[in-house]
Amino acid sequence: MGLINTCDLQPSMVLGSDLYAPNGRFLLGKGTTLESKHIRIMTIWGVPEVDVEGVQRNVVMGEAISHIDPLVLQECEEWLAHRFRLSNRGHPVIQELFQLALLGLSRRVLEGTCDPPAPYDSREDEQFLLQHAKLAEANVSLDALVARHVKLCTLPDIYHRIMEVIQNPRSSAMHIAEVVGKDVSLSARLLKLVNSPFYGFPGRIDTIHRAVTLLGSNELTTLAHGVTVMREFENMRAQGLNMRRFWEHSVGCGLFARALASRKPGLSEERFFVAGLLHDIGRLVLLKEHPDHMRYAMALARVEGLPLWRTERRIFGFDHAQVAGRLLKSWHFPADLERMITFHHTPLKAANLLETSFVNVADCIVLALSIGASGAPYVPSLEARAWDALEITPGVVAGAVKQVERQLDDIVRMFFIK
Question: Is 67's pLDDT higher than 60?
């Protein structure tokens, strides 16, 4: 018997033990021969993995990989081994991610949707580091950097009006809807999101008031905050980053954080989506204000095999997560969102390990699967305590990947790509 990802199940497989939904509801008994309708039921109930007789998870994945051209497989595996050089490959989640990444990359190469990955050649980066050694230390104050950016990038009036309504104890859902509804662009984006596969509501939602009724005022205003901030950054151009791929990474992180948080009852999923969405905006600030130093930090990370946030700290004395957190604090964002973003690389230092861990793990997944690009060259080591805090199984990751794949392109196109 072995635990198999629900997305890998096939009709005729036999359950090795009784099957229960995540909420404890009994679904199917041990010994049941699976049919297509059973697999659909598991998907509907959010079952991440199933105990199956005579089958092992690594065997199922191995069979899928065995059908790939060996030469393509070898090229992709060598490239991924370099990309995963910092990660703890012995952790079950990293093992799962490596196999998913290998299978996905190999298939894209064979389908012709991407070129075979070329091995990293460090000579150009090494030459740049030698020629620009003076960039190894930037004389920059975090407070001054954030203050300058706040002055240049003031949030629109709608943000402050939403904040006033939220802080007024007499405000109702109707008041929230009225304020948001006055910003035509913001309303249009929120309604697109509510009507997208992100939520999957059966009927069309055509008014902000209806959206507030379905989601709740706190959830909708959290989304409004995130979308408002993203509008201020979406037209920014940063040297050294492909902006489309940056937004793909950001949206992907938000979607994964939300998908993982949905496994824990009682959490507001929208907060995690917005935290993932905004987790790297500090890097845009650094790239805009100090492009040469950031290019040095990125080259140094590739050459020395370090996480980019660590080379940022070496050069600036702080990293992009701290910039983003300080920026959101200056805009009076909710403290929990600010903390999730500030500590998304260092979740063990956060006051709330659980909440920050969702963003930390989501960022690791997106980097492992090469969804978009944030400038970070390597998949980080997964913090075991952060993963354990989520209290979910590795099989949840494969299910989340399927969910995010269905949503990613639509959400990126809808909001951030002209």
Answer: yes
Name the superfamily (CATH) of residues 1-67. Molybdopterin biosynthesis moea protein, domain 2 (3.90.105.10)
DSSP class of 115: P
What is the C-alpha to C-alpha distance for residues 145 and 124, in angstroms, rounded to an integer? 30
Q: Which helix (H) or strand (E) holds 321?
A: helix 320-330
Q: Tell me the pLDDT tens digit for each residue of 151-173.
A: 766 667 777 787 787 777 777 77
The CA-based angle 40-49-79, given to 5 degrees, is 110
**What is this structure's pTM?**
0.84
**Which of the 8 DSSP states describes residue 366?**
H
**What span, in angstroms and rounded, lies between the C-alpha atoms of 152 and 144?**
12
Q: Based on the number of CB atoms within 10 Å of its own CB, is 12 exposed (0-12), middle (13-18) or buried (19 or more)?
A: exposed
Rounded alpha-carbon distances, angstroms, from residue 305 to 87, 120, 134, 214, 232: 11, 11, 21, 47, 33
| In the block, residue with structure tokens 């065995």 | 66
**Which parts of 185-319 are beta strand (E)?**
none
Rg of the chain over all Cα atoms, to the nearest angstrom: 22
Contacts for 334 with CB less than 8 Å, ≥ 6 apart: 222, 225, 271
- Please check whether residue 229 is in contact with residue 223, taking contact to mean a CB–CB distance below 8 angstroms: no
Domain ranges of the chain: 1-67, 68-143+235-418, 153-233
What does the H/E/C string look like for 170-192?
CCCHHHHHHHHHCCHHHHHHHHH
What is the rounded CA–CA span in Å between residue 299 and residue 297?
Answer: 6
E-state strands within 6-42: 19-20, 26-28
Does domain 68-143+235-418 fall under CATH 3.40.50.800? My reply is no
